[in-house]
Amino acid sequence: MKTVVRRIAVLLAAVLILGGCTEQQLFAVRAVAAGIPSLAPFFEEDGALGKDRRGLAPEEAHSGLQQGNTPGLYGGTRNQRVCDIERLKNFLTDPENSQKAREWARIVGIPPARIGGYLDGLTPVLLRHDTLVKNHDYKKGKAVPYDSLLAAGVAVLVNERGLPAVKCSCGNPLKSFDKDPEKISVTFEDGNKKWAGYEKSDVVTVGPASRPLRRIALLDVDDPGTAIDRPVGTTGEDDSTFDATKQHAVPTLVGMTFDRADQALARLGLAVAYAEDGPPPGDATVTGSTPEPGTPLAFGEAVTLNVDTDSGAPTDPGSPTDSGSATDSGPPTDSGSATDSGSGSGTTSGPSASPSGKASGKATGSAPGKGTPSGRTPSTPGGGTSSGTGSTASGGGTASSTAAATPTLTESASAGPPASSTAAESPA
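Below the sequence we write its predicted structure tokens.
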């Protein structure tokens, strides 16, 4: 009997030890609710710098990894100024705040003298998903990083790669979340109570667009039937709107490269998901799609692409490459067909993790497979390319301002009314 009891005790101890080890592998993440002031912000959170949209329910995510140029990933409004960029610029360039400015610029990866120009290239949006980021407090003259979960409704400035770069209400610099989101332990404290609609399974991370964006397609949070086309580096004064309820048929994508299929869908205002554990190589061949060609979908709904990963060359997860062209992820085009004049070969490294590939036909403005970036992000889902400059800005890095001029229908990155339902492109 004593032997049996001893064996049971040993087994229980082993279970407790294993349980403790598993718990130790979880990454602590601090929840940040919309409208709740930070305890140690860069800028006093009194509403003067920016305002969150409280009560905005998080959308169900098609996937845990969202590309920064996914149609409808972010929200916008025509009736509320969510971030006062000029005020933040004046604050950080004031000699009295030089220490904060140095730390802020260090996190962003730019010299303090470039803060003004960098801020001019950012674009205010509202999060539509509970989003993981690396946030920063300001304590004792230093920027202190911590992982945080920003609630839907939090106002942020995104850079030209579509990455959250600044939390509007406090001026805190943001960078990409670089851990496995399936191993996070979210804590709700310091007034940040668990908000309505929070589901750990719907938390997302944002991966960078492979090329600088020219425009961002936002869903109007005040009128979900309307989408907003916002030029990058503007605060709403140059917005235009289009119908987010109009449906577009899924085009025939079999035989295209992943990059080209990605771009063709984005021109129709549709998001991209994939069946594998992570983004496939940009030159991998598409072998099928769900739903099938001809299926009508509204703005922001996702199409899951099956690809032959052996058909494309493996990508280098090192430093991002850029062909020097800017991408337009604005409203669906009306060119008669979803044509593509380029393969979009630019690649960008990103956080690593393992998506589990969840996708649905619900219009949530989300994109690719459940999980997080796997070191290679898919090429920009935009309407092709147009000439421009564009330096890399990953996770709050240096970002140059891109052209915000409205493209014409003769450009490969055309913007305008929705395109037709077919992709007039020969298989790659």
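The mean pLDDT is 76.
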